[in-house]
Amino acid sequence: MLSPPPSVPHRLLPRQSLARFLRFLLPSFVADHIFPDHRTTYRVHPTSYLDGLRGIAAIIVFFCHYTENNFSALTPSYGLNHDRSSSLVQLPFFRIIFSGRPMVHIFFVISGFVLSYKPVKALHARDLEKCYTTLASSTFRRAFRLFGPCIVSTFMILCLRQMGYLKPAKATLIEELWKWKHAAFHQITWPWAWDRDLTPAYDIHLWTIPIEFAHSMLLFMVLLMLSRVKLHVRMGSVLGLMGYCLMCGKWAGFEFLTGLFLAEIFVLKGAGEKQQQKDWETGKDGQGDEVAMGTMVKKGFQVGVILLGLFIGGWPNHGADKTPGIAWFLERTPLPFAAMDHLAPQKFWFGLSAGFTVWAVGELEFLRKFFEGPVAQYCGRISYAVYIVHGPVMDLFQGFVLGHGAIPAHGEPGEEGYKQAMAETGVKGYFGVKSTTQITVSWFVGLWLLGPLVIWAADVFWRGVDNRIVDWGKRLEGWCLDEESERGDGPRGMGYGAV
Questions:
Q1: Residue 79, Cα to own-chain centre: how many angstroms?
Q2: Phi, psi at residue 329, to the nearest 5°?
Q3: DSSP per residue over 415-463, as a string?
Q4: What pLDDT is stored for residue 120 in this prediction?
Q5: Which residues belong to any copy of the Acyltransferase domain (predicted)?
Q6: Residues ≥6 apart with Cβ < 8 Å to 248
Q7: Could you give the CA distance from residue 395 to residue 376 in angstroms, rounded to a whole number?
Q8: pLDDT, tens digit, for every residue of 90-121?
Q9: Dihedral through CA 440, CA 444, CA 447, CA 449, nearest 10?
Q10: pLDDT score of 275
Q11: Rounded distance, CA 77 to CA 92, Å?
Q12: What per-residue confidence (pLDDT) applies to 491?
């Protein structure tokens, strides 16, 4: 048989590259089904439920901005619409599906938990060296992890504006680059404002990122400060700092430290369960009716915590004082939150409910299993990408997909400011937006059409940008490490190995 000419591999190379590129554009769950040989296996670990909870919370943030931007009639509390009846999705508990603000507070509690878990676990194992190594590594890579994807996404928005796909655009590329520089380095990566909303240009939804970074650093400092003290001193100090944050009106600091406290409880609970299993195997387990009754009461309390969190999570942006139940919490908001601004009271209650919710989810097996399931875990993997890309994806496609109802002419022909009548288009034009039922149906259908676009874009961004930046951060850390210091061989006169 004749061998193929040497030029064949060169002709096949572009085809192979094209095939890889097309496979890359497929959502990962579709590509895994079509190409099972390339499937990545993900292991469930003790805190996987937190990833799932964060993923579902990120999806709810997208639902929130979709609803607020396009169907503002659904955002008031049930019964508070002035010009029409309310929709069923505005009822308490149901409205949590598009209540994005409390999800931000859940993000922060989860971040405090996850960032603390390994150092706290090392402290309980009395391995200070591992604790310090983990803290140093997390601190080194945190800026790359948080800011890197945002820098890329906002630069992509810059390009889309200059190409005319998004508005508003600056007159010249130089002006656009200068504006982007200000947004990137004086808003998105500017942690010195602590918990103040800097409303960054190019993607206003990234206001939480500098807050996340600043309080990650605070968390690492607290862990370092308390790493050598006794357990009860450490937990008492964390509780004291949590109270101090609330006294100062610093909701984000409270939430990150709440995550640290929950991580301590989680590690202690794991150690207790191991001891309980050992006692059961040796016949020392004395569980009786009283213990079983106590367990039932505890589970009932945890379910109540979840239900209360769902109710508080439906806190409206406006009209809280007129909303049954929410008005009761508003009246009991302590200082300084009660006197700061109109959003501060909800931040206080969101922070408290987020801490209790994260705790209760980990305690209730049926919820933990749900958040460890494949759908929630997938959402968790792409959660940061969903948070970053949902804004620009909506800006690109929501006008085309949702359209508008019929718009009558404005003014008289020939006069200044005259606007011609416009026929209905898109989902709103097809289903209508006049009645409450029409608005609800349009909201639901539009969500099912825009949702897959957001998930697809997030999946591609997660694999193409987010994962790569995480990997580059690890490589950079490895390249920068002082190997002699890692082995403890460095000269003491240069500060290496010094206590």
A1: 30
A2: -65, -40
A3: STT-B--B--BHHHHHH-SSSHHHHHHHHHHHHHHHHHHHHHHHHHHII
A4: 95
A5: 49-405
A6: 336
A7: 26
A8: 999 999 999 999 999 999 999 999 999 999 99
A9: -120
A10: 61
A11: 8
A12: 46
Residue 114, burial from CB neighbour count under 10 angstroms (0-12, 13-18, 19+): middle
Verify cis geometry, omega within 30 degrees of 0, for the bond prior to 336: yes
R_g of the chain, CA atoms, integer Å: 26
Cα–Cα distance between 321 and 309 in angstroms, integer?
Answer: 18
Residue located via tokens 């190594």? 133
CA distance 150 to 466: 9
What is the spatial distance between Cα 338 and Cα 352, in angstroms, rounded to a whole number? 15
Buried/exposed code over 184-211 (b: 16+ C-beta within 10 A; e: otherwise): beebbbbbeeebeebebbbbebbbbbbb
Q: Which residues of the chain have pLDDT under 50?
A: 1, 491-499
Q: What is the DSSP letter of 108?
A: H
Q: For the CA atoms of 296, 298, 301, 307, what is the dihedral angle to 10 degrees?
A: -80
Q: What are the structure tokens assigned to 308, written together?
A: 């209360």
User: Has this prediction a pTM greater than 0.85?
Assistant: yes
The CA distance from 426 to 115, in Å, is 44
Three-state SS for 419?
A: strand
- Maximal CA-CA distance, the chain: 94
Torsion sign across C-alpha atoms 148, 149, 151, 155: positive
Tokens of 134: 């983990």
Count of residues making up the chain: 499
**Four-residue CA torsion sign, 94, 100, 101, 106:** positive
Domain borders along the chain are: 48-277+305-407+441-479
Q: Write down the residue that tokens 């010249």 correspond to.
A: 172
**Residue-by-residue DSSP string for 258-316:** HHHHHHHHHHHHHHHHHHHHHHHHTT-----HHHHHHHHHHHHHHHHHHHHHHHHHT--
pLDDT at residue 422 in the model? 73
Residue 403 CA to residue 426 CA, distance in Å, equals 4
Nearest CA-CA partner of 428 in 449, 444, 405: 405
Return d(Cα 27, Cα 35) in angstroms, integer: 12
Task: Label residue 493 exposed, middle or buried (CB < 10 Å: 0-12, 13-18, 19+).
Answer: exposed
**SS3 call for 78:** coil
Query: What secondary structure letter does DSSP report for 421?
Result: -
Cβ neighbours for 487, distance < 8 A, ≥ 6 positions apart = none
Q: What pLDDT shows up at residue 276? A: 58
Q: How far, in Å, CA of 359 to CA of 447, rounded? A: 31
Please choose, from the candidates 109, 338, 142, the residue with its C-alpha nearest in 3D space to the C-alpha of residue 242.
109
